[in-house]
Write a structure and sequence with these properties.
By secondary structure, the protein is an alpha+beta fold. The protein is about 35% helix and about 20% strand. Strand 17 and strand 18 form a beta hairpin.
């Protein structure tokens, strides 16, 4: 143990007894009755366990201070210029140092040449880590174009990165290769290997031709340590030998595995194992994004359901979708429409904009286009972002009211410490306030953050969890239980606290429409539109609705899908108040949106179609989230104006009959 950190050993009645067919690995895995997890942990004075990293990943630079790659990555937080990155130990001159491998974001490569991007990234990393201890700073920054190698569980495989970069293995990892088993004479090796290839190809959902003697397990994402065990288990069943008899420690490629099976007396069952129904009846792992995996899922559905899955488009390589989808089978096509120009006069968005809308609802694009025309002819929508925050609401349980009140006071006294703990996990997030909501002997804390250009749900979750870990480590009073999140936050749901306060961006947009334009283009009078607005307010009150508006969700859903936002956030974003009033010779229409959830980095914004739509909106990349919020609000205002006018002019049903049905017929 060093600096209070040591390897976690566990023992349990339900623990496995070892690894089949590998006595050497079993001996290395156990220390007496305890399983060696490989996790490096520390225990605080209250007995809580904290994982610092993996033993095989720890970096020991000159001076002997342990450096943990996972902690370095957590301190870096979100890097807007990186699609993905990983910290690891790099051997140089007989010593080990921290290194960082970065794959630049597509947005950066669109504006910079690879050499310029690499220089920029290296300079930014030097700046970010300038105040870190010397032994934690990255001695090298590698910029790569290929995706980082990952296991089937999507963890970065640092050992494979070392091989790719030529960083060398740690001394403990250098082993002499054991000689391969010798295949006995007289075995129909070619025929048996052909069966072996078919079984392995079926397991990996690849063509048998992709399996050769020289192919290494590490070339397949599915074949991490557990994946190899699953494959060997199936091969042993087909080759009729007990798995426990195999010594797998030194086997790294398919040729070695096949030779080991044959040398152990294995004989494959034959062609009967390749019954076509069975071949098509197995789905690949959810995290397999290879072309063969996508094809296999579609073949499975074709046979199982008879659905015409061939019409579902799929890319040549779906690996770029990792982090956005699992079990990928193809793209769900939603038509994209375009409206504009829409004139916006905001603090961040100024000028004429064109709006992409992804929808299957006929008449929606035409309706918003009409509203955009009216706004532009009237001089544009005035838009302002009034507030910008994101909320997480952990809850803490106590036995008595006194215990809860004591904890509440302690939180208030340690706000600066909690702020430091939360902000240590992110470069862009800032903890702005912690608001207490006591309920009996339970206390809910409303953590309020600013999140920069990200929508921020993941960012604030990680930051709040870090703050809670600090609380658990330092609070000495009684506490019964705690949970990271409660419904007070209003994540993807409407609540009154966020309606009157803020979660997301609180945005107001308004326009003053000359009365002649109302009659000419909207085919109704301003008086009827105002009256309908007043009646809608009254009926919303009777319905106990949050706010009063016509159809925010229509425009938000269409823009969210087009621009890579989280569509589920429409649930909380589509609330607000639409107000209409006469001002002398003009009709004033305004909308107030208390919780608009949008961002321009992270999540779905990195997908190609969505990135293109953000470029159409001139909102791709960092420092543009408030600009996007102002444009979205102006588009919502356009939709409100057009729909209210259609209702007032009794054109709503006719418009849907004309635009919302194929050929105008039901």
């Amino acid at each position: 143990m060093k600096d209070g950190v040591g390897e976690l050993l566990v023992s349990s009645p339900t623990l496995c007894s070892g690894i089949f067919g590998s006595d050497g690995d079993t001996k290395a895995l156990f220390s007496g009755p305890f399983l060696r997890t490989g996790d490096l942990c520390e225990i605080d004075s209250d007995g809580y366990l904290y994982v610092r990293g993996r033993e095989k990943d720890v970096i020991i630079p000159p001076g002997g201070v342990n450096v943990y790659p996972d902690e370095l990555e957590m301190r870096l937080g979100v890097l807007p210029f990186a699609e993905e990155y990983a910290a690891l130990g790099f051997s140089e001159g007989g010593s080990e140092y921290p290194a960082l491998v970065v794959k630049p974001s597509k947005a950066m490569l669109q504006t910079k040449q690879p050499a310029e991007a690499a220089a920029f990234i290296e300079e930014e990393i030097r700046r970010i880590t300038g105040d870190w201890p010397e032994w934690e700073r990255f001695r090298r920054v590698h910029v790569v174009s290929a995706p980082l190698p990952r296991s089937a569980s999507q963890k970065v495989q640092r050992n494979r990165l070392l091989d790719i970069l030529g960083g060398g293995a740690k001394p403990a990892e250098v082993q002499q290769a054991a000689p391969k088993a010798v295949v006995p004479r007289g075995v129909e090796a070619d025929r048996q290997f052909d069966i072996f290839r078919k079984i392995t190809g079926r397991f990996l959902n690849v063509a048998p031709e992709a399996i050769s003697r020289e192919k290494r397990f590490s070339e397949f994402l599915q074949l991490d340590s557990l994946g190899v065990v699953a494959l060997v288990s199936q091969l042993c069943e087909e080759f009729r030998i007990p798995m426990r008899e195999l010594q797998l420690e030194t086997v790294q490629d398919f040729g070695g595995l096949f030779d080991l099976l044959i040398a152990s007396g294995g004989v494959a069952a034959g062609e009967a194992v390749f019954d076509e129904a069975e071949l098509e009846g197995r789905l690949p792992p959810l995290l397999d994004y290879s072309p063969d995996a996508v094809k296999a899922r579609q073949r499975f559905l074709q046979i199982r359901t008879g659905a015409n899955v061939k019409c579902i488009p799929r890319p040549e390589d779906a690996r770029f979708l990792s982090g956005n989808i699992e079990g990928f089978i193809g793209f769900g096509e939603i038509p994209l429409g375009l409206i504009g120009p829409l004139k916006v006069a905001g603090d961040h968005a100024r000028g004429d904009f064109y709006i992409p809308l992804a929808t299957t609802e006929g008449a929606l694009v035409s309706s918003v286009a009409r509203g955009a025309q009216i706004i532009t002819l009237s001089g544009g929508a005035r838009v302002k972002v009034i507030a910008d925050s994101l909320v997480r609401a952990p809850i803490f349980v106590f036995e008595t009211l006194f215990d809860m009140m004591s904890f509440n006071q302690w939180i208030e006294n340690h706000y600066d410490d909690l702020k430091a703990a939360a902000e240590s996990t992110t470069r862009h997030g800032r903890l702005e306030a912690i608001e207490p909501f006591p309920m009996g002997s339970t206390l809910c804390l409303r953590f309020v953050y600013s999140t920069g250009d990200a929508s921020g749900q993941n960012m604030t979750t990680i930051a709040t969890h870090a703050a809670i870990k600090w609380i658990v480590a330092h609070y000495r009073g009684p506490m019964t239980d705690w949970f990271l999140e409660s419904n007070l936050s209003g994540d993807k749901k409407v609540n009154g606290v966020n309606f009157t306060r803020n979660r997301g961006k609180r945005v107001i947009a308004e326009v003053e429409i000359p009365l002649p334009l109302v009659e000419k283009h909207l085919h109704t009078s301003a008086d009827r539109m105002v009256r309908l607005g007043q009646l809608s307010m009254m009926t919303s009150l009777h319905a106990h609705a949050f706010g009063s508006q016509a159809h925010y969700a229509n425009i938000l859903a269409a823009m969210f899908i087009a621009a890579g936002q989280d569509p589920a956030c429409v649930a909380e974003s589509a609330t607000g108040v639409t107000s209409l009033e006469l001002r002398r010779d003009r009709l004033a229409v305004s909308i107030t949106m208390p919780g608009l959830m949008v961002g321009t980095v992270g999540g779905g914004t990195r997908l190609p179609t969505q990135q293109a739509c953000l470029q159409i909106l001139e909102c791709d990349g960092p420092r543009r989230s408030r600009k996007l919020a102002e444009i979205v609000a102006a588009a919502v205002l356009a939709g409100e104006i057009s729909l209210i006018a259609a209702m007032a002019a009794d054109e709503f049903a006719g418009a849907h009959a004309r635009y919302g049905r194929s050929g105008g017929h039901g």
